[in-house]
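User: Predict structure, ligand XIL.
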Amino acid sequence: MNRLTRRRFLQGCLGAAAVAALPGAAFAENSEALPPLRQMALRAGIEYGAAVGSPHLKQDPAFAAAVARECGVIVGEYETKWSFIRARRDEWNFSGTDALWDFAGRHDQSLRGHTLIWHNALPNWVKDDLNAATAQQLMEAHINTVVTRYLDAIATWDVVNEAIYPSDHLENGYRQSPWLVMGADYIEKAFRLAHAANDNATLIYNDYGVEFDARKADKILSLLRRLKDSDTPIHGVGLQCHSGNGEKLDLRGLNRFCRGVADMGLELQITELDIKDTRLPDDETERDMLVAERTRAVLETIFAVQKPTQLLTWGLSDQYTWLLDKKMNPSGRPVRPLPLDRTMRRKPMWLAIHDVLRQAA
Ligand code: XIL
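Assistant: Predicted complex:
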């Protein structure tokens, strides 16, 4: 029996879960014969992809090959944020997003835009300049310039990111964002500007925590309803799904949120899935299984209500994850939050995503 047939035989009789329980090397060896995630996603009528850093694509051929193989869509981890594009008042730096556009073009991938208006990744000069008199002009110039430049490259934008944060105790659960100087309707204005710049683009409101925090989920739903009621050009909501580190999942709340989104006729996107595992056991095989199970639980809950139009992980390989940053992981413990390990081998999390996509086809 040749290797491929043996593998298929093993896969068939052991089943995905059993294969996923195999130790890393054996698991990877048995999963490599399966079609890539981008292909499974396409069969399900959606796009799978990942956030990538353009330098990693340039410097690491194995990583670039894995991104090309597995991803049908990519998004810049930071290249399309203000901090990269607008580092200085009189400068526009599109080199990072252009590099991603080039890579996506060479690998038949779509490119996602993240993000136009956010309280984070704002250069100091913007924070200095931003006030009630300047905000509209700053927002308009940025959105017009960036969205127009990528008219033929970026068809989906995270227009506003993380605007809801009930712990700031503002009306409607708004976050104390620098953009609030424009008034609470800064969100609607951002969507209208993005639509005016590209009326073909899919415009998304992106946020995190709906799988843990029912209060925050309700505030996001109310925001979406207000935007819809004011005929704001919004097409969907992005659930970041940073779903790890042992926080108690509220899958009923997640189901309720997804039903609310569907009732409004909005599309759902999963935009930044990863499973921070620093509170899980050290044993890698056990940890990988728990990460895979949590991935499956979140995805199956969402897919049961509405198939997302895009499913992205926030990174593809454990080699390049923001969760290695000291501020995100002060202990410096190795993390395994993504579908591929540090050597680009497929992990149980990869198989969990593969399985959900297979069932959705
Ligand atoms: C993160 C990047 O991955 C980090 O490299 C950067 O230091 C901080 O921002 N939610 C988001 C993303 O919408 O833009 C954030 O990306 C992760 C949380």
